[in-house]
Design goal:
The chain is globular and about 75 Å long. The protein is α/β, with parallel strands linked by helices and 412 residues long. Strands 2-8-7-6-5-3-4 form a 7-stranded mixed beta sheet, with helices on both faces. It has a 4-stranded antiparallel beta sheet with strand order 9-10-13-12, covered by helices on one side. A two-stranded parallel sheet has the order 1-11. It folds into 2 domains: 9-22 and 270-403, Alpha-Beta Complex (Aspartate Aminotransferase, domain 1), CATH 3.90.1150; 25-266, Type I PLP-dependent aspartate aminotransferase-like (Major domain) (Aspartate Aminotransferase, domain 2, 3-Layer(aba) Sandwich), CATH 3.40.640.10. It contains 13 helices and 13 strands. The structure holds pyridoxal-5'-phosphate. Pyridoxal-5'-phosphate is lined by residues 80-82, 85, 110, 112, 157, 161, 186, 188-189, 209, 211-212, 220.
């Protein structure tokens, strides 16, 4: 019998909620009838199957709208966060190209925003990538300073998926309102613990992802402001005119129902979850820092997603550490680019040294993480890390008081 069977939780312990979240059982339950009972096309107006589906979509739209305080008619359902971000950036840029061809964004965006910006550069747009400080923040003043006569869009990530830093959305929104520039916020991460209000925060476009908020994978939403100003977008595809012509194609009714329920639960639980996850991740961090030296917390120390801890274990290869703790499901600190072993553009933008980038692990706690799991994770990770430190010649030298910076390495 394996030890894992004696634990009061399942292993590997899931600490990778920034990659995807478990679909909440309440969400699954709400979705089920829409696969094989009320399975109509939401746009079929001639029979009850269609009406039932349409009614369910209407309710989901209200719930998603309520989460960010907008009108239901301002919510466009998409296939996920990536499509929402693509639609926001390509859609706005191409619609307003005659007004100007300059976009302001940051150096720490998710690929679903960064790559569209890069593609637009090839279409003749100019993009300013604002640098961040060592905590991963841009300031509203930086944004204000970058906006020009021909700026048509500001696109900023909210909760950073690699280091957890939360951008000052409200301050940036105020600058954009003041300058009359459209503001897109990539809020795929953070809606389960933070409160965003598109009016109070001056947001014109807001991207959401179902599977980052305990809903299903493959569904997302984009908030598109309809009043003051009325934002228009060029659609990415062609077809039947669904979603006010912004996003063509038959609606994913079960997915939309799930996203709606997920949004409702997030709204009800976000304040309490923020408190709970803040305490849990502090518990994990404190355990690490109390029992090991030469650790670094990447990202902002306080203005951060409450469940996300990106920690560099100096002198330990991150990949080796991950392999050494098979009882934990975590990501390397630069999850998005770990396949290529390229130092991530986010960590690089923060100025994290290349050595520390490769030693970083991202722990992301979530709604279903328990205190027992956190304590287990700390124990498992520390055991693996101490073992690897003992085998590290670099760490040996540091312990002996040798300054590694003064060593001249011999290359063959
Ligand atoms: C996950 C994520 C996305 C992409 O969302 P998908 O639904 O996975 O396509 C975009 N931005 C951020 C910050 C994310 O974490």
């Amino acid at each position: 019998m394996s030890i894992a069977n004696e634990l009061p939780f399942q292993t590997p312990v899931y600490l990778d909620n920034s990659s995807t979240t478990r679909c909440d059982p309440r969400v699954v339950e709400e979705m089920l009838p829409y696969f094989s009972d009320t399975y109509g096309n939401a746009h079929s107006r001639s029979h009850a199957y269609g009406w039932g589906a349409e009614k369910a979509v209407d309710l989901a739209r209200e719930r998603v709208a309520s989460l960010v305080n907008c009108k239901p008619s301002e919510i466009i359902f998409t296939s996920g966060g990536t499509e929402s971000c693509n639609l926001a950036i390509f859609g706005a840029a191409r619609m307003y190209a005659e007004k100007g061809k300059h976009i302001v964004t940051t150096a720490v965006e998710h690929r679903s925003c960064m790559d569209p910006c890069r593609a637009l550069e090839r279409e003749g747009f100019e993009v300013t990538y604002l640098p961040v400080d060592t905590n991963g923040l841009v300031t509203a003043e930086q944004v204000a300073g970058a906006i020009r006569e021909d700026t048509i869009l500001v696109s900023v990530i909210f909760g950073n998926n690699e280091v957890g830093t939360i951008m000052p959305a409200k301050e940036i929104g105020a600058v954009c309102k003041d300058k009359g520039v459209i503001f897109h916020l990539d809020a795929c991460l953070g809606l389960d613990t933070e409160t965003l209000d598109v009016d109070a925060d001056g947001i014109d476009l807001l991207s959401m992802s179902g599977h980052k908020m305990y809903g299903p994978q493959g569904i997302g939403a984009l908030y598109v402001r309809r009043r003051r100003p009325r934002v228009r977008l060029r659609a990415l595809n062609l077809g039947g005119g669904q979603e006010r012509g912004f996003r063509h194609g038959t609606l994913n009714v079960p997915g939309i129902v799930g996203m709606g329920k997920a949004a409702e639960i997030c709204k009800e639980t976000r304040d309490a979850e923020k408190v709970r996850q803040t305490a849990l991740s502090k518990r994990l961090k404190d355990a690490f820092f109390a029992q090991m030296d030469h650790l670094y917390l990447n990202g902002h120390p306080t203005q951060r997603l409450p469940g996300l801890l990106n920690i560099s274990f100096n002198y330990i290869e991150g990949e080796s550490l991950m392999m050494g703790m098979s009882t934990l499901a975590v990501s390397s600190g630069s999850a998005c680019t770990s396949a290529t072993l390229e130092p991530s553009h986010v960590m690089r933008a923060l100025g994290v040294g290349e050595d520390l980038v490769h030693t970083s692990i991202r722990f992301s706690l979530g709604r279903f993480t328990t205190e027992a799991e956190v304590d287990f994770a700390a124990k498992e990770c520390l055991a693996a890390a101490h073992k690897l430190r003992e085998m590290s010649p670099l760490y040996e030298m540091v312990k002996e008081g040798i300054d590694l910076n003064t060593i001249e390495w011999k290359h063959d």
